[in-house]
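Support case: zinc ion complex. Customer-provided input:
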Amino acid sequence: MVEGMKLGCRCGQVRGRIAAHPHWQGNRLTCYCKDCRAYLQHLERADCLNEFGGTDIYQVPPAHITISQGQAQLACLQLTQRGVYRFYTQCCNTPVGNCFSAFWPMVGIVHSFVLESLDEQVGPTTGSVYCRDALARVPDELKGARSHKVMVLRLMAKLLAWKLCGKNSPSVFFVSGEPCVAPQQLAPGSAVDKG
Ligand SMILES: [Zn+2]
Ligand SMILES: [Zn+2]
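Agent response - structure generated as follows:
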């Protein structure tokens, strides 16, 4: 089991929690894709990237996330019209997490929104994706044990299991299938947003 973890923005207005859950219902990875980087750079939070331009993400089913205060501070970005929904807090530009849609039972919580040490609570990153988009060659010891292909296959298996368990709802990020706040779109028609 992974213990419950406190969530919060850096100014303290938004507070929440990841509920305690079995290990298989969480997945820590580092994403080096350009879109995750563009999202943090747009928020002027490049300080949340690692030195190779990667984002440390903990993927969990939305049903495990609660927001206890400051829900109205949540804002949403989309890099492209059909891109991933990327949530942040408008009070202090804390990156919160990424979701594909209300249908998919997964939110990638950005480490900046977790008030506790992911290393201590869930252990090191299990693998990295989109290393080819990193700012420099990512050393093997930082990548984690699993390759991009294995990580994608594992994620698909988890998505299926979480969907079958109905873990896509309730979600603090969606209301009646739509994002809880209207997403701001950055650059319609530009590159594909991979998540
Ligand atoms: Zn804040
Ligand atoms: Zn990414």
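The radius of gyration is 15 Å.

Case will auto-close in a few days if no follow-up is received.
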